[in-house]
Protein: Aminopeptidase N
Organism: Celeribacter ethanolicus
Amino acid sequence: QTIHLKDYTPFGYRIDSVELTFKLHPTATRVISKIAFAPNPAASDTRFFLHGEELELISAAIDGAPVIPRKVEGGIEADVPDAPFVWEAEVEISPETNTALEGLYMSNGMYSTQCEAEGFRKITFYPDRPDVMAVFTVRIEGDQPVLLSNGNPVERGDGVAVWHDPWPKPSYLFALVAGELINHPDSFTTKSGKEVELNIWVRPGDEDKCAFGMEALKKSMKWDEDTYGREYDLDIFNIVAVDDFNMGAMENKGLNIFNSSCVLASQATSTDANFERIEGIIAHEYFHNWTGNRITCRDWFQLCLKEGLTVYRDQMFSGDMRSHAVKRIEEVMILRARQFREDNGPLAHPVRPESFVEINNFYTATVYEKGAEIIGMLRRLIGDEAYRKGCDLYFDRHDGEAVTIEDWLASFEEVTGRDLAQFKQWYSQAGTPRLKMSETWEDGALTLNFTQTTPPTPGQKEKNPQVIPIAVGLIGPNGDEVVPTTVLEMTEAEQSFTFEGLGARPVASVLRDFSAPVILEREIDDATRAFLLAHDTDPFQTWEMGRMLAKDTLIAMIVRDAAPAPAYLDAIRAVVTDETQDPAFRALVFGLPSQDDLAQTLFDAGITPDPQKIYDARESLRHTVARHLSDALPTLFRPTEPGTFTPDAEGSGRRSLSLAALSYLALLDGGAAATSLFAQADNMTEQAGALQALLSAGLGTSELQAFEAQWKDDRLVMDKWFTMQVASAAPDKAAEVAEALSHHPAFTNKNPNRFRAVFGALSANHAGFHHASGAAYKLLADQLISLDSLNPQITARMSGAFETWKRYDADRQGMIRTELERILATPNLSRDTTEMVSRILSA
Ligand code: ARG
Ligand code: ZN
């Protein structure tokens, strides 16, 4: 059934304390709870309902007297006194058979939990909703050497540990870990002088992969003090790496649990991209301690309150640690690839949804990434100082509370005196605004005329104008900046802004730093683009101009069989060989737009995309670029000197340019350079980069075997091995390759990383997934049908591969419809997958 934001009512009881005892057993863990409830005077509904799923009730009592609660949909009900009372219950659960990886489960012999969003109800009967916050004491009995939970340790004996978390928290932040683990210890002294014990806990054998994550954690703790004035608040902070994990990581209070792929790092096994991602995710989960934990969400509709804000915070952190320019371009690429894609299809939804069936289906690019863009726009509109003041007020006012987007915005209205009512529409209105711009030039005045429209999305036909901050700068004809970045605040459907007193007509640089999550449509010729590419002071704009040239070239090749545009080839040569520019930036300019991006662009232009044609055009352009730059490639390819690897922005930037050059070089030299790099590399970035370059040139068979032989015992590296083969398979081979890999002895659909390594890669291989045979559609559907009963969350998430189906021709649409209907007809299909597939089909 559907849950609506407008139906929110507070729970009838507050909780004064929670005491839990776990007696661990793989198939028969006992959970004993003792919870002190009291009537909540702020609530009108006094029904005593506790969530509970897949629990075997052994006994229950109220104030010491045994009771038999009534079983109702999703939990139990009982009659309770109209005064404070103590609820006690004992339940039995089976972690070992829990393949959904939600609640308490086992992974490689260790116990772990994942409670967000609604997993705690699979641990014990409880009001499993974020607005019920309580202080927990947890006793764990088990023969594992390491027994962890939230908060501070209070007792440690043989086979028992007791933890107390003094900070009231909702149940979704509960965590427990037990196993044979080894810690990488360190400590951090907070700015007020409190010493905090830090640990990263891993399985034996992984202890040499913790140092980088630990440094990232300490940098995050310092950054949150310096930038937001936020200090850590417990004596200990633990991180645990778990192999089987549905998401990236989880911010449980004082006990963050990570997908091992998002914390374990070493030069030999991790790529530069892995290092960067690990640093960002460690920061993200740490930052949740204030934005999410100390102040949490009133209900799950407010998910973006913690996620959008925390993503924004981790993005700024990464920018400070590395390069803001490069980081911003990467963010925009991700936003467009995932969030714009989502906004353009049947799964489009507001950053704050108004209804859901299964909340796990709303941990989306829209909630996370567009949610972060909203924070960035707010800050740009009110300025850095007011932003910091508003945050301080929010933290002061709501510490220990479960709040809403309205509460968040009210803090900024108060410190700025601004009315944010129109701005708030960013949270409620789905879809990507289209911003059209034209220019008029008269008597030394340049006028920029804008119109905005947002296309209809499911359930939202009519759209209102949004508040759009448009960052603009003007570049004079000689290449000098005549007007530095100015933020235009658009609030109407149509609006013009004039810059006066200009000597000669300048070129406008519009939407600098990608100041709003919109699609800018602007008449601009290749010469002007090349001019901005050469002279703009804004790195995002420079990259954007190169990207537009590349896209137009590819579209013309696809639609008109045109030859690659010389303007594009000359422009990239100029940037890529410009030794004065940051190599990381040059590598980004070197990259081509993705096939999926081109498919959407064609569709938006009223052309039905042909995936094979898109693939062929892109391959042909790759060959042209390689030949055009053949003289420069050998100097651009600069392998890291053995023994000098560092995983920082500088080293990583150099390698990304070098490897981009290598992938072109492999098309010219028969793979000679890549083969030798593969044999010599002392780091995974270059070893995998060399293999990737070979595979995308149709080579690398023996290297692939060597890679497997070398890394067969490393799960995370083997994920790369699986992914690379599917990702680089030719369009007519992709389904075959993925199918064959699904029979490899190391394949299992019980490990989400491994499943994604193969089938996530298949759906990301655009021409392979959409091959005219329909083989990949059928294979993915088969896999999703068999995964659903094991792991509904991953199944539902991966069904999003079909969200773009309405772009394609009738044959493909017909084949996809058949597969979606086949999935939907599966007996006992999960609520998660049913909701997703129905929404996709309703397009
Ligand atoms: N709160 C986690 C994070 O963003 C994500 C957990 C999502 N879990 C889920 N089952 N949907 O850091
Ligand atoms: Zn988060």
